[in-house]
């Protein structure tokens, strides 16, 4: 499990441990957000005997020893975030999303029967021409981040075709819930509601997302690690909850029971207008059945945000 201290990674680690797996969790605690939150994300996993933590930067060195004994490699470590990926930051994105992925694939080459699950992103589609978007639509990223996630996908596909690695790619659509990264919309909105500070809404707020509750993303990811006969497949993982940014703010106002002070800011470069996942393939081959809707999931995230002050 790479990225085990991150938002989705820490939930996945707990899901795997709960299912009886032994997990070697890797994370380099890079500084894209606070170490305190990442440590707290890991705290439950660390109580399990079946969990080993390896602090490691995947872009450095040989990873053969790391993956040698694994049946499945879940690669969730990444430099995340769409809007900050311009300019000088791109070097971090290429290093942590492309180079690190290539290092891990090289390490797995010696034992190609291992399953290799790669966490990709809806951002590889860019301004999708067809909504809901099917996996076979031509990817056209709209942000440097999306370019690096698509490059990671291409690496998986070429190691699958050349060396018969058992790769599976998951395109997550805007995942939310407890432990969501602090830079993401719902985290910012909940923090502002809790602290009575202002939120920035980019553009007219009418942009829509297919939001995915983290528990549903984890269930799909575990299925991707274990299901037979899905080598080389690509799956959309979208919660099927389609809402605009403005609608989510209205919902949070109801959940939090207070008004939220909104400042309108210009649309951000790299931000796409709409995302919507066609999940037919994931439902058929992974048994994907998203169970948590927007109101329940956002309520969970709100409870988490108000339970501890450090976020
Ligand atoms: C999210 C993640 O940040 C990416 O890492 C992930 O790859 C991507 O989902 C994905 O689906 O592939 P994004 O959809 O931009 O990216 O998610 P949020 O950061 O939660 O933003 C959602 C919307 O809210 C965006 O349109 C954004 O412009 C808007 N927003 C965000 C605001 O209006 N104000 C804010 O303060 C933050």
Structure description:
The structure is a single chain. With 311 residues, the chain is an alpha/beta fold. It has a domain at 7-176 and 213-240 and 276-290: Rossmann fold. It contains ten helices and eleven strands. It has helices at residues 7-18, 35-42, 64-67, 90-108, 144-163, 185-195, 214-226, 245-256, 280-286, 294-307, and strands spanning 23-27, 51-55, 72-75, 115-121, 166-172, 175-176, 198-202, 208-213, 233-237, 241-244, 261-265. The strands form four sheets. It has a four-stranded parallel sheet, with helices on both faces. It has a three-stranded mixed sheet with strand order 6-8-10. Strands 1-2 form a two-stranded parallel sheet. Helix 4 links the parallel strand 3 and strand 4 (115-121). Helix 1 (7-18) packs across helix 7. The longest helix is centred in the middle third of the chain and has 20 residues, at 144-163. The protein is globular. The mean pLDDT is 97. The protein binds uridine-5'-diphosphate-glucuronic acid. Uridine-5'-diphosphate-glucuronic acid (UGA) binds next to helix 6 and strand 7.
Q: List unreliable stretches of 5+ residues.
A: none
Number of helices: 10
| CATH homologous superfamily descriptor of the domain at 7-176 and 213-240 and 276-290 | NAD(P)-binding Rossmann-like Domain
Rg estimate, integer Å? 19 Å
**Which fold name is given in CATH as the topology of the domain at 7-176 and 213-240 and 276-290?**
Rossmann fold
Spell out which ligands are present: uridine-5'-diphosphate-glucuronic acid
Class of the domain at 7-176 and 213-240 and 276-290 in CATH? Alpha Beta
- Placed side by side, the strands forming the largest sheet appear as 3-4-5-9
Please report which band the strand proportion falls in: under 5%, 5-15%, 15-25%, 25-35%, 35-45% or over 45%: 15-25%
**Averaged pLDDT:** 97
What's the count of strands?
11
Q: What series of H and E elements makes up the topology?
A: HEHEHEHEHEEHEEHEEHEHH
Oligomer: single chain
SSE class: alpha/beta
What distance separates the N and C termini?
Answer: 24 Å
Helix content: 25-40%
- The appropriate CATH architecture of the domain at 7-176 and 213-240 and 276-290 is 3-Layer(aba) Sandwich
Overall geometry: globular
The largest sheet is: 4 strands, parallel
């Amino acid at each position: 499990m790479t990225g085990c201290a991150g938002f989705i990674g820490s939930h996945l680690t707990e899901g795997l441990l709960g299912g009886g797996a032994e997990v070697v969790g890797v994370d380099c605690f890079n500084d894209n957000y606070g170490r305190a939150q990442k440590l707290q994300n890991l705290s439950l996993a660390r109580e399990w005997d079946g969990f080993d933590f390896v602090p490691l930067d995947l872009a450095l060195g040989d990873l053969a020893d790391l993956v040698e004994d694994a049946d499945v490699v879940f690669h969730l470590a990444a430099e995340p975030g769409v809007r900050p990926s311009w300019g000088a930051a791109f070097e971090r994105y290429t290093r942590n999303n492309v180079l690190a992925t290539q290092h891990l694939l090289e390490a797995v080459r010696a034992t190609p029967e291992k399953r290799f699950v790669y966490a990709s992103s809806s951002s590889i589609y860019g301004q999708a021409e067809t909504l809901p978007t099917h996996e076979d639509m031509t990817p056209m990223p709209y942000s440097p981040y999306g370019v690096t996630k698509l490059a990671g996908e291409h690496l998986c596909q070429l190691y699958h075709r050349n060396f018969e690695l058992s790769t599976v790619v998951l395109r997550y659509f805007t995942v939310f819930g407890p432990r969501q990264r602090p830079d993401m919309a719902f985290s910012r909105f909940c923090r502002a509601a809790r602290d009575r500070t202002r939120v920035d809404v980019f553009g007219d707020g009418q942009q829509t997302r297919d939001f995915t509750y983290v528990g549903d993303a984890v269930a799909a990811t575990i299925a991707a690690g274990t299901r037979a006969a899905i080598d080389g497949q690509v799956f959309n993982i979208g919660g099927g909850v389609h809402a605009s940014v403005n609608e989510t703010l209205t919902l949070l106002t109801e959940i939090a029971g207070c008004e939220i002070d909104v400042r309108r800011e210009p649309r951000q470069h790299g931000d796409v207008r709409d995302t919507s996942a066609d999940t037919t393939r994931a439902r058929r081959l992974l048994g994907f059945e998203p169970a948590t809707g927007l109101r329940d999931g956002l309520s969970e995230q709100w409870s988490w945000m108000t339970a501890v002050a450090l976020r």
